[in-house]
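User: Show me sequence and structure for the first protein, then do the same for the second.

Assistant: Starting with the first protein.
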Amino acid sequence: MAADKVEQAEPSGPAYPISSVDNALRLLLMFRDRKRLRLSDAASSLNVASSTAHRLLAMLVHYDFVRQESDLRVYVPGPALLEIGLAAVRNMDIRTLAKPILADLAARVEETVHVAQLEGGKIRYLAGVESSRPLRVADRTGQLMPAQHTATGKALLAELTPSQLDELFPTVSSSQVEQGLTVDERADLDEELGQVRARGYAVNLRRAEDILSVAVVVRDRRDVAVAAINASAPAKRMTQRQQLAVVRQLHAAALALEELLSSAVGA
């Protein structure tokens, strides 16, 4: 007896759909296939009145997801939508393009290396290559850590303005320390970030584990820091002289990644 075919149900939508959000997202998806979208086409595709389509598009215009051309009934992708797309490609490229660079860097410095990015007030390790030495720092790929407690985090925080730092690390009382930094902690961080700017690289010593890390930033073609590369080792191996030698290799690796990222975005 032949087995009955079991039809797979199509994935259902969200349990509590919000029609206005659904329509706005459907509008954005239309730009996958079209470079320009007329108001009448938007209304027809969504099966809504032109006035409703106009209000939805006006909100997307407000947030720069779309913009109007000289013909006020025609819409094209806006800078926010394009930037999100470029950011996604850039982040994907950093992981993909950094791997051979990290492998070469790890071989050169004989220590564990990573590339990382900021996520709010924390740092995310995107990719890493472990040292081949018996005593080494473990690969932290995927881990999320407080930015102010890592070399990669400090390197990237040093690129931010005071107001941006205020948003990430509001000054709080000692009883609210989980939501920000105390006045003394913030003062210490500001002083250390000043040293990072003056030196051109960041240093972090994790005393409990006796691990020392150094890091430099990776910039995009607009000269904006988009990531940081670090090398970590047992502190006894990372002497001041060794730090300087490793930093030279980090800068060379960062430059190589910058060139690859620029080529990928410009392609």
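Switching to the second protein now.
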Amino acid sequence: MPIIIIDGSDPGDPCASYVKDLASNITTVVSPRYNIGHGRGMCMGINQTKTKYALIFDSDIEMLKSPVDQMLKMMEEDTFGVGYIEKTGFDGFEYGARQKHKNEKWMPYLHPYFQLININNYRKFHPYVHHGAPCYLTMLDIYKRGLSDKLIKEFPGLGHSSGQGFNWKGEPREYIRHDTRGTRGFRVSRKLSEIEGKWEYK
């Protein structure tokens, strides 16, 4: 499969040199030369995709066993995407994390750590944004149109492999290992904001 890597490293970072050397006839490396952010990076990669589907995943995952063929079989012509679904508030925070969630419903959130999406269907909704939950405005757009249950599908066996939230608990996974808050935890340990830059809310 063709691979697109969006590298948000500073030019002097060793990671930038490493990723640059990965370029090949099937691997495209795009270097904005600054931390473009998760959501904007995904949009940049999606805009360069020439295939019908795109498999989007975080740089901190480890594929233990590929679920891709099975995920592809779940895709129908109108499917937006297949992956791990998390209960999320309309504000982009995990459902239950804020007091106001008690008086609100929740929306299904297709988590970006490992998701298969239909490119044409992605372009019908709000694009991914710079936010702690970069897909939340897309998911909210789908939810408001009453299409969540129709367009978003959960693949059994996906989920976080460590940590605990309000509605989930990490456990060993068959397919993808995803230990949450990798880079965010690192930034906090250095007394920086979890995510660089101003979050987008519209």
